[in-house]
Write a structure and sequence with these properties.
Order of helices and strands: HEEEEHEHEHEEH
Number of strands: 8
Low-confidence stretches: 17-62, 208-214
Number of domains: 2
Largest sheet: 6 strands, mixed
Number of helices: 5
Structural class: alpha/beta
Strand content: 15-25%
CATH superfamily of the largest domain: Glutaredoxin
Radius of gyration: 25 Å
Oligomer: single chain
Amino acid sequence: MTVLVGVETLLLILLSLLVVGLLRSHAEVLRRFDGLQSGTMSNGHPSTAHPAHPADLPGPRPEVTPAHDISGQTLSGDAIQVSPRTGANTLIAFLSSGCFTCLGFWEGLRGGVAERLPHVGRVVVVVKDPDMESPSKLRELAPDQVPVVMSSAAWEAYGIPMSPYFVYVDGPSGQVWSEGSASSWDQVGSLLRDAVADYEIALERGRGGPGTTT
């Protein structure tokens, strides 16, 4: 009888330890999940996670705003400056080397999608500074025919909230006509067509300026 009681006691102790372990594991999972949602990992460093719904855009700009020149460096380390305020209409693609959704956009650029986008004269890709990206990965991803500028300052100047993110600049006026996130090049094309359509409506109404779209 004493042996049976001892066995039962031991089993209860083991079961209690198992339950405590499961509860701790569950708490750790919840803590890490909350960290990803808030933009940090469990070690306190910024998370590389990106929004699950990139098409959920911030509100439109209250009015058309001037574009900014983009200064930074190439993937080879050379200084470069791109001005979207002159010449052809420019689509600025803010991408990253560590963004899963960005992979499809990199692949499309290597496949020549930039030449098929509506109302776009050129595409410029902007990534962050080398200490926030993987230069070796970027060299694998970057297309030969599209300039890639490493410039965290450009992200700040345009107020980019996430990647991938796109800013459409009208070259002759030097104004940002439209901006937003997307999960495919088809969505980007739709954003561009909407931007031009909104501009045409604005002209019909006599406002004399393009509208914004999301």
